[in-house]
């Protein structure tokens, strides 16, 4: 793949659930990804690249298959499901994708949307490397997009699983790069 291909930035679950210290999914060190994500988003805005905010939201009062494995979380209009700080869609090049599973692609229109925008490569950032980032990278690859994960723009409370996921992404699906290299892809 060439460096001239059209690239989009996908922010995965940059929501209160993970980044607000009062929330049960918060973990020490998660804040380390915020500045790299800010830098990537600024580069995307400057170049006019598509920015997708993929956030998990579930319907209150209805059964959800995820409840079989995880406690209730990220219900529509609940504090934990709201965007963290300034990380909400802003401007003409930013959009929202609601997801109900780990992957931003599964049962959403993300692949269709990106195809319509002629995107070929996606830079995936946010939390957690071994769950939502990995699932999104795998489904990006399965849908014909080159997944790129900037190492400093994602992490996990399970570092050994994050490292294994990054290794698998780099070996089998796409690329793991530095934030600076990813910024270059957005410029």
Explain this structure to me?
It is built from six helices and seven strands. The mean pLDDT is 96. Strands 1, 2, 3, 4, 5, 6 and 7 form a seven-stranded parallel beta sheet that branches. The radius of gyration is 15 Å and the shape is globular. It has a single domain, classed as 3-Layer(aba) Sandwich (Rossmann fold), CATH 3.40.50.850. It has helices spanning 16-19, 34-47, 110-116, 129-142, 159-173, 179-186; strands at residues 7-12, 51-56, 94-99, 121-127, 146-150, 154-155, 175-177. With 187 residues, the chain is of the alpha/beta class. Helices cover 33% and strands 19% of the residues. α4 (129-142) links the parallel β4 and β5 (146-150). The longest helix is centred in the C-terminal third of the chain and has 15 residues, at 159-173.
